[in-house]
Design a protein that fits this description.
This protein is mostly beta strands. It is built from no helices and eight strands.
Length: 121
């Protein structure tokens, strides 16, 4: 498994954006707020891939270091979500990014620092 580290450095208005070409299966997203006075302050985070309208993460007011596991439901041959089998849950698999990965932070605080780690293969 690989780890892509995105260093978050907010502007004075508390925003940060990053984007880059990315092709892979995303297993987890780990948000590290930082420490002390320079830590991110309850940021809102969006991680997307716009070429195919995919949202991997959209959370507001994150108050502590957190790991998220983006996934998508298994689809049937016609592109619809696969049907339930009995009373079980629908199957989910790790999310795939095949375009430009985008990270947007708002409300992170004036010139604060943190990290987003993308675990992928």
């Amino acid at each position: 498994m690989n780890a892509k580290v995105i260093n978050i450095h907010t502007a004075t208005d508390g925003t940060f954006t990053w984007q880059g070409a990315f092709h892979g299966k995303i297993h987890a997203l780990e948000l590290l707020l930082g420490s002390g006075g320079s830590a991110l302050s309850t940021p809102d985070i969006d991680v997307t891939e716009d070429n195919h309208s995919v949202s991997f993460l959209s959370v507001n007011g994150v108050a502590s270091d957190t790991v998220y596991y983006p996934s998508t439901f298994v689809e049937a041959a016609d592109g619809t979500t696969a049907a339930l089998v009995g009373t079980g849950m629908k199957a989910a698999v790790s999310a795939i990014c095949i375009g430009v990965l985008k990270v947007a932070v708002t409300g992170g605080g004036d010139t604060k620092r943190g990290k987003l780690k993308v675990y992928w293969d």
